[in-house]
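Box 3.1. Reading complex inputs
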Amino acid sequence: MKRLINLAAGLAASMTVAAGAAHAAAAPARGLPSQWTVYSGDIEHDSAFKAPAGAAGAALNKGVTWRFAEANALKLSDKLGKDAAALGPRTAPVKTTQFLGNAVGVTVVGDVVYVESDSGYVYALNAVTGRQIWRAPVDNAAMGDPVVVDGRVFVGTGDTGFSFSQILRAQSGSRAGLVRGLSWGGIYAFDAKTGKQLWRFGTRGENMPSECYADNTLYFGNGDGHMYALDPATGTLKWKTPIGGFDSMSSCTIYQGKVFAGFTDPNDLAAVDLHSGKLVWRATFPNVANTGMGDNSPTVDPVNHQIVQVAVANARVTGGKSSVNTAVLGVDARTGKVNWKTLLGRGASPPAYKASVAMVHGGIVYVSSPVTNRLYALNGKTGAIVWQSAIPYPQVPGLGRGAVTFDNGLLYQSTGTRLFAWNAKTGALVHTLRIGGRFGIVNPVIVGNTMFVSNSWGWVFALPVATVAGSKA
Amino acid sequence: MKRLINLAAGLAASMTVAAGAAHAAAAPARGLPSQWTVYSGDIEHDSAFKAPAGAAGAALNKGVTWRFAEANALKLSDKLGKDAAALGPRTAPVKTTQFLGNAVGVTVVGDVVYVESDSGYVYALNAVTGRQIWRAPVDNAAMGDPVVVDGRVFVGTGDTGFSFSQILRAQSGSRAGLVRGLSWGGIYAFDAKTGKQLWRFGTRGENMPSECYADNTLYFGNGDGHMYALDPATGTLKWKTPIGGFDSMSSCTIYQGKVFAGFTDPNDLAAVDLHSGKLVWRATFPNVANTGMGDNSPTVDPVNHQIVQVAVANARVTGGKSSVNTAVLGVDARTGKVNWKTLLGRGASPPAYKASVAMVHGGIVYVSSPVTNRLYALNGKTGAIVWQSAIPYPQVPGLGRGAVTFDNGLLYQSTGTRLFAWNAKTGALVHTLRIGGRFGIVNPVIVGNTMFVSNSWGWVFALPVATVAGSKA
């Protein structure tokens, strides 16, 4: 069922927050995507939206089909990604996801699709035709989905790397204080219509996570272990709070007057006051493995007033083989107290990104584990597993990294080499579809009856939702 | 005095080597630069060449003046480089050298200047006018000077970074087996006339060092700890020999039928047979600090039949301050036995690249130390210091990283923010010139009476040698 709440454009952004109180301002508009204030466009990470009014909306309601090849795109028939001969089948897809294609899903605002590419470009595409409106260069990989508010497009750049000085720090036995990000790290603002660069704010660490936006402020956690607040008009720093560790791919979210993000070494979930920049609480979870906390984007469960956080946990090496578990935690948004913790099961440690992004719909937590290659539904109040289903094709390691999207009783998932449709109530697999290439941490974005996905090979797709559901020939 | 040996174009490349014997084939043409087979165009790292015949040569003999701004070039008045506000005065110039501008000097063949930029481009510029002939994109930073032989331009890509798995390896206490290079690593061949890409060979580690060429084979050591030999026409692998450690910025050289490069962790100078790919010897030096061996490009001293290698040595932390020494070693090219070792003096550890590139001219070793900020002349037979001079302006840390160039009794040096001319016999400073920007590991290339230099801010300059010598108004 599509969300029908339809905030007027810009309303959420311009509202004033009563500090410390729950407020609507932090929640993105869940109907018409007239702005995109948070990773996946929704604090519940449920990327289903009503189509905009007018001809474009009518087309998206009918379902459009196109595909767009970015600069450096690989052939869709390519199996393992760039330089597989030198890198091997485990590393080649990872490197391609991190340095060539699209690490996460797209942004849709009005009839425009905004996409960040690791090849150093931001694209604006016509949502109906797939034609390029503009392309803007950035100075490093762009791995998020752009935040788009009030005619500005915000993009962070950065990479997964470490300098040699960080190697020396690690060799000295220290785990704390590592800075992630090798080459340039910056936050950019572009004009949404023209792609003209408005400003750039440089940082010491990477900005792989997506930013989040509320109350005329742009927030982000990043690779130098800080939470930042910038003026969106000028890029001027409002405040900067040291958290410690590094935020790898944990895209921030906003709820109850606080901005949340995960950090690695120490493995903390941090809650920072939106206005003062003061750390309200930090939750440290024991036995969390790298880089599960700093890689996981917190999800808001507004029914249970909690943050749902996924953590790579209990790493173990047995007989030379490393295994991990996936922990899902319900954390009280006000206090940081853990309401419940559910382990999804042990398995071989997947390559690179080992976490996954939870999605909440109606108080149910939907989350996959790239360790067990399964999709789960959890009771948001207790953490009890309601159902679980094996994601087929486990020969591709690390399935289920991206959030699923709920639409008309089905869950849509883009993972490995395929799109999946699941029955949200039972977990029964409804349909699978292979469209070529390979998905990273990608959430399907649904607008009307059109689904938008991007992939690691450097492609953006639009296709009718019915095609993915299998209800159309 | 300019070298007058003038091999016919292509001769060195097509000659067959008698294995194990000294041979002319490995030595680049030292007169007319009709090809460029090794870092700095000369196995002695002495980049002074006769001008080519014809009108272009006449102009270069007179001395031309131009400057060329590459993509992303900074203002020449910029003092600390990109993102200095976030990175600080020690890190900003390093990052700019590694990810924006030109890490080392240029290549000149005929009347064309070939330049590799960290911003991901290779340029061919008209040597007389500075106008761009072509620009070719590559997939990561290009930090060497291109090898150019028989109408093909060879370029390596790679970066200084490490992946998170290398951090985990370092944290486990292991120093061996680290792979350097985060994003793409590749060797490219381009058509010298058009810039058309002919082939690309992907590697696991970075290819920051320059390649070297002999006997219709392209050689290189790289970040995955191997020495490679490729067919220059097709990019096909001829052989690949594991050395261990990583070659960071040690550009290979060729002498007496062997290819030489330095590696870090273990800190070895390796000599590999050109034809069989077999390791002939490896010299391990005690107390070498990171990454001095894998960063240093070996220099051939043909008078004393030895390899001159610089190593960052005897690292020490006293009162929280780390200091190092700079060791220069004369190593028997046939056996790997150390003929002599000279310590240039202790000082504060400079940021990033801590080594320097030696230049040999007439059996004298000219080498700077970025630790003492001094330039030295050493007797090549004994290693005894003949003279030493302080490089002025030591407020810029890490002076003297690039090789100096000998021309008409003077030594030319590009370091810090300035060009210097020194009396080669006495070490007396003759002239200094500031042209804006900042130099990385840059050797001045002299053709006729024109000097070519590139810098960390993304600029290439041509200027009359007399201007640098101070002999012209």
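In summary: The first strand of chain A starts at residue 48 and ends at 49.
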